[in-house]
Structures are given as structure tokens and as C-alpha cells.
Predict the 3D structure of the following.
Amino acid sequence: MKLNSNDFIKVKNEKLIKWDEPNGEGCMVSDKITKESFKVGYMYREEPVAGYPDSGWRFLAGNEDDDYMNNSNNYHIFSLNTICNYDKDIIPYLKSKIGSSYIRIDNSKFELDDGEKPIFIDRQER
């Protein structure tokens, strides 16, 4: 489902996680997830950006190319809890250490990214 470029897919925002890390629960998310209805296919955790409510988590569908990612209009900052409502499959991995990266390997599971396996690209059920 492709929406107007300014429209995020509406999701019921239930409290799904308790995030108590000191830097906050902000995360960067590709519009392919929040506007084009893809599931998270690749996620990684960087050192949080100081001075911002940043968890360090970055979430991508896995089918973004360099041109897409070089356009800052194609990703936005959300709270982790909101993104969990888009894709609950990410919840078990959120407490992973900084430097962790995961790829989706089937419609509901992730594993550590070793650079050897392809990302399983899937759509969210709505």
C-alpha cells in the first residue's frame, strides 16, 4: 500500500515495551516501514547520539538503496515503542548491545547479521 508521501501508516499505539536506558527511546526508521508497509528487515544499533533522545537503533526494510538512504526525507525519528507497534518481531532484540546488527531470516525471526545471508523482505499485515 503506497500512501501520500506525507502519510504514515496508522497503527494502534499500545505500550509494548519499557525502555529505561538513560539516553531515551528515539530511533531512526525508514519510510519503507512507516509509509510503504514493509516489515523491519535489517536493524542495527549504533552509539546513541549525545544530546538527543536516541536509543541508537536504526530500522530498515532491507530494500533501500544508496539513493534512497541519501535522501533524509526517506527516514524519520520515532519512539521505539511506536516502531514495536509497526513490527512486534523486533521486541526480543531491543536490549542488544551497541554494535549489534540483525537481519530478518523469515516472516517472524531475526538472526545476527554475519554478511553472508540475504535479508528476507516481507510486508506488514494490515
